[in-house]
Amino acid sequence: MKTLTRTETVRLPEGHSWLILSLTALSLLVIGAPWIAPHDPASPLDLVHQTLRMPGVDHWLGTDSASRDLLSRVLHGGRTSLTIAMLGTATALAGGVVCAALVQYGGHWLASGMLAIVDAMRGIPRLLMLLAIGAAAGGALTPAPLAVAMGCLAVPLVCRVIHAEMQQLSVRPWSDAAHALGVSPVRTFTHHMLPHLLPMLLGLAVILLGELLAAEAALGVVGLGVPEPTVSWGRMIQDALPDIARAWWPLVVPCAALLGTMLLTATLAERLNSSLVIHD
Predict the structure, then answer these.
(1) What keywords would UniProt list here (predicted)?
(2) How far, in Å, CA of 187 to CA of 209, rounded?
């Protein structure tokens, strides 16, 4: 049987290397948190003399109300928050791709049933479902189960987005040629459809990363995120709220880290959307 020759190439965006370098540096920083952080993020330094110390030479970002070094906590918190967001993003993309492929190639009845389920799940706000899951778990979800739950709740949206793109790609000449040559749906998807989806998937991954960072922070603020002694940016924000009248820095530090990372992801997603294209 004849096979189609793929000639498409993916062109990466040019002139935006600073964005990618910034995200890479941020990732390396939080990955190396156990070796870079000057103190244990969960252990108090000195409850008498080191409580709510302003940023200075001894503690660059200050200390919190429990006498814990904020630089150490924001590094470890970023490690936790980004790990949850990245694992959740991977879960959502994997589930979304599989569901979209089944809808596209699984036949009328399977497609209709899956789309009905997807649309029903999309009708329920994801944050509300996350809050319900967190409350049911008593705020004791560890990072891995929390990330998987967040990713699974994003699958319906990802499935719809990918399926819409697949419908547009299915009318391309190469798709008609594959069908005429008798190429199997699995081979058509893996060898021809998926390469054309990669640019969109990359942009979607960056968008999801920012959204899941915000979702994790929201859960942490209301006390339904990862439990102590695990630290995350959302948990740091929750811990800082009771002392906002006495000290601003325990709240500003995690908020700045979270907002800065979300701004980076949003900017990168916008640039990828306009610059990352695939050429036949």
Answers:
(1) Cell membrane, Membrane, Transmembrane, Transmembrane helix, Transport
(2) 30
